[in-house]
Amino acid sequence: METETMSQIITKDQLLKHWQGHRSLSRRTLEKFPEKELFELSIGGMRTYAELVKEMLAIAAPSAKGLETGKWEALEEDKKDLKTKEDLLKAWDEATEQINQSWPNIPFEVFQQKVVAFGQYESSGYELVAYAIENEVHHRGQGYVYLRSLGIEPPFFWERE
């Protein structure tokens, strides 16, 4: 069996750009929602898009901060202070900036080390970032279903800039 070793497939900066591209698309999805439906619409027992956004906020910047510092707080998804679309958008922008501030300080080796994020999720650092991205893509897809049910065209999924 032939083995091939590669030192790197994607750079740390490329990974951040990929993640922030998804975050930009998720923000544009949030912008499309009418205020009332953002907090009230549920289909098939799914949580409202506001609740899904709060979960994404609870994971994203705290993951970057935890990878940076090695200190993890409990996962806090409730975020009762985020009561309007404007509140959510502001929190989204603040989280984006927090990720950008933490990212350069994350030691490269942390991406290969095991971490226990939020006291419950054990993975390597890169798996945690992948989880944050996958979770966001999943919930954004739910948002697309909600938008389409309202007759609103969601943003094109491939436009991540």
TrEMBL record:
Keyword terms, alphabetized: Metal-binding
GO molecular function: metal ion binding
Residues annotated as binding a divalent metal cation: 139
Gene3D superfamilies: dinb family like domain
Pfam family, one: DinB
Annotated InterPro entries: DinB (IPR007837), DinB/YfiT-like (IPR034660)
Tagged with keyword Signal: no
Signal sequence bounds: none
Family: Belongs to the DinB family.
Listed name of the protein: Putative damage-inducible protein DinB
Organism of provenance: Algoriphagus iocasae
Lineage start: Bacteria, Pseudomonadati, Bacteroidota, Cytophagia, Cytophagales
